[in-house]
Amino acid sequence: MPAAVSVVSRGRSKMRNTQRKPSILNFDAGCGSSLSFIVIGLVGFTLIACLFFISHQVKTGHAHSYSSHLPATRELEQVEEEHFRLPPPHKVNPRAVKRTVKRRGSTKASKIIDEYLDGSSALHDMFFPSETTAVNPTKGRNDSMYFYPGRVWLDTDGNAIQAHGGGILYDQNTATYYWYGENKDGPTYQIHPEGAQRIDIIGVSCYSSKDLWSWTHEGIVLPGERTNITHDLHISKVLERPKVIYNDRTRQYVMWMHIDDGNYTKASVGVAVSRSPTGPFSYLYSFRPHGFDSRDMTIFKDDDGMAYLFYATRGNTELHVSPLTADYLNVTSAIRRILVRRFREAPAVFKLRGTYYMITSRCSGWAPNPALAHATHKIMGPWETLGNPCVGGNHFLRLTTFLSQSTFVLPLPGLPGTFIFMADRWNPSDLCDSRYVWLPLSIGGLADEALDYSFGFPSWSRVSIYWHRKWRLPEGWRKSYA
Ligand code: DGJ
After folding, report:
1. What's a single GO BP term from this record (predicted)?
2. Residue among 366, 406, 408, 426 whose CB has most ligand 1 atoms within 8 A, to mutate
């Protein structure tokens, strides 16, 4: 085929030559060489202008195409392909799937997702391996602190970690990491046949760790309320995506979370405070930020001590970002709409060298969907979309964020440009057995779909989440806290 193509193209050029019409661009030999001269001159000028532009960007700190390829992180950035054979399909319970996954077409991928979500399928078992394969810090460190995305992950007491939709705080005061998340250790049920699968509020769990691999349960630092049915934290309500930051002025640990009723119509944020990272946290109140409905949310503390709330709003059609007050207990009056009409949720915000990044998911209940990375120079926006950050695995895994949904992105202090992407592999048929997908995320190289081009150069670096069946943190990841 390529030979035929080249014959055709040669024939065409011959025809063009014989039928060439006189034109003002039809120079003789002498004119041809001056044209080349002009072209070379123009190309040279453009190159010099581009080099000048790049050096200016570097000098002014506006060069955002950042390369993170440190020798220590090379292994994390290996592209690992995954070739699994799908088990033979079984009859999916249509009612269960209808309730779990709404408004999805019947593409091949969505059929596989329906099957994966059905707790009784072999495909489901493939991605929710049994406890016999659990990551277990009580067994010593023979398996040398590997993360295994999707496996049961035990704490230092040998119990499955219950910290879903969570986030991590590095506490300078105790030089310890604290992982806060939803404790979902209860039975899954539906309030009504069309409702989402749910678990009663048990509370927010806290785990501590120095190495990010072996986690000690510090208890339920914000428990559900058993008796007062009008309380936001009554067990019949919804508490999701708790995140904690430390306020250096007030010396309080401040927790923000999504507060809702069983039907997700309250759509509010809740705030709680504590003097200690391990609680107990006192619940203050819930409210709708600026009067808007607020579902999936996160908070982000910037280097200058300012903190921001990001929340999915207007029926999940867009996100809003708002600075918090100095005590982190409320939002200020400033508000910006971002990613309007994009239907994004599960925001996880992080920063590298003056650029802010965010990973989001689409809105599809507990079902996985493709992640997107976004970036901006100004946290209040506008935010640009960079594309799907997932690398490796296979097409299906990349289309489903490795069968997970973003919740937090944790910087690794000794490895600038490398982060841990934290996500939930939800198990709607048994939410308490939802798993964690932690993978290395790095910023480097040019983004695939950067919309903002200046002088032909995309302004953003690529955000990549690398699939690994098993991986561990490289030496030196802690350096700057040592
Ligand atoms: C997706 C959200 O990201 C989760 O936190 C949870 O609210 C589920 N939807 C409920 O269906």
Report:
1. carbohydrate metabolic process
2. 366
Atom 9 of ligand 1, nearest CA residue: 365
Q: Which residues contact 417 (CB under 8 A, 6 or more apart)?
A: 66, 67, 68, 70, 73, 352, 442, 443, 444
User: What are the respective helix, strand and coil percentages of the chain, to the nearest 5?
Assistant: 20, 35, 45
Ligand 1 pocket (Cβ < 6 Å) reads: 165, 196, 240-241, 296, 345-346, 365-366, 405
Is 198 within 8 Å of 182 (Cβ atoms)? no
Secondary structure string (H, E, C) spanning 225-250? ECCCCCCCCECCCEEEEEEEEEECCC
Cβ–Cβ contacts within 10 Å for residue 114, how many?
A: 23
Q: If you measure from the C-alpha of residue 282 to the centroid of ligand 1, how many angstroms do you get, rounded to a whole number?
A: 24
> Over the stretch 211-266, which tens digit does the pLDDT of each residue have?
999 999 999 999 999 999 999 999 999 999 999 999 999 999 999 999 999 999 99
Instruction: Compute how many other C-beta atoms are within 10 angstroms of the C-beta atom of residue 385.
Output: 19
Q: pTM to 2 decimals?
A: 0.85
Q: Where are the domains of the chain?
A: 108-472
Coil, strand or helix at 208: strand
Distance 366 CA to ligand 1 centre (A): 6
Q: Which residues contact 392 (CB under 8 A, 6 or more apart)?
A: 78, 79, 80, 81, 82, 398, 466, 467, 468
Q: How far is the CA of 468 from the centre of ligand 1 (A)?
A: 25
The CATH fold of domain 108-472: Tachylectin-2; Chain A (2.115.10)
Pocket test for ligand 1, best of 101, 197, 296, 427 (most atoms within 8 A of CB): 296
Q: Is 460 exposed, middle or buried (0-12, 13-18, 19+ CB in 10 A)?
A: buried
Q: Which atom of ligand 1 is nearest to the CA of 428?
A: 11
